[in-house]
Design a protein that fits this description.
It is a single chain. By secondary structure, the protein is mostly beta strands. The chain has 1 helix and 8 strands. The protein has a single domain, classed as Porin (Beta Barrel), CATH 2.40.160. The protein has an 8-stranded antiparallel barrel. A hairpin with a 5-residue loop joins strand 5 and strand 6.
Length: 175
């Protein structure tokens, strides 16, 4: 069973490029590339009374084939039946180093930004991030990102315990 799973993953990774006539060198990033990503999510109860949605986008620039700097902007909205509607946002700068494995581009990085809005304590934060981008064609990819943000507003010794995880799955393009 493991053998078939591994073969399936390899086929899904390698076949799309060959079907589209792309060579291995066509995948990935180059110095001077711009990148834009977009992700969104939402939930509602069965009466669509309590609704929560969020959207986030980013714009990045590759200084080298592996090193990207950019800006991410996210906004979320919570509509509570019988309660007060709330919104929150985050704006952060990031720097990521990409490891070039053709269609698959794992990356490690750091971010620095601000969290603000009605449902959160306004604060600055920073932290590490890790993820992977998988190209489906030479200019379009799916990505997964995970961050841990340490808040700057805590004066106690538990600042590392008071952080937050952020998970993202989305789509991006380069040009």
């Amino acid at each position: 069973m493991k053998k078939w799973l591994i073969l399936g993953i390899l086929a899904a990774w390698l076949i799309p490029g060959h079907v589209l006539g792309q060579e291995v060198g066509d995948w990935g990033f180059n110095a001077g590339d711009l990148e834009m990503t977009l992700q969104g999510s939402g939930t509602s109860d069965n009466d669509v009374d309590n609704t929560n949605f969020s959207v986030e986008g980013s714009l990045g620039y590759f200084f080298t084939r592996n090193l990207e700097f950019g800006l991410r902007q996210g906004i979320g909205y919570l509509d509570v039946e019988g309660g007060e509607d709330r919104w929150d946002g985050s704006t952060r700068l990031f720097a990521d180093y990409h490891f070039d494995f053709w269609q698959m581009q794992p990356f490690l990085g750091v971010n620095l930004g601000a969290l603000y809005g009605d449902g959160v304590n306004d604060t600055w934060f920073a932290g590490p991030e890790v993820g992977v981008k998988v190209f489906v064609i030479s200019s379009t990819f799916l990505y997964f990102l995970m961050e841990y943000n340490y808040p700057f507003d805590d004066d106690d010794d538990e600042v590392f315990d008071d952080g937050r995880f952020l998970y993202a799955f989305g789509m991006g393009t380069t040009w």
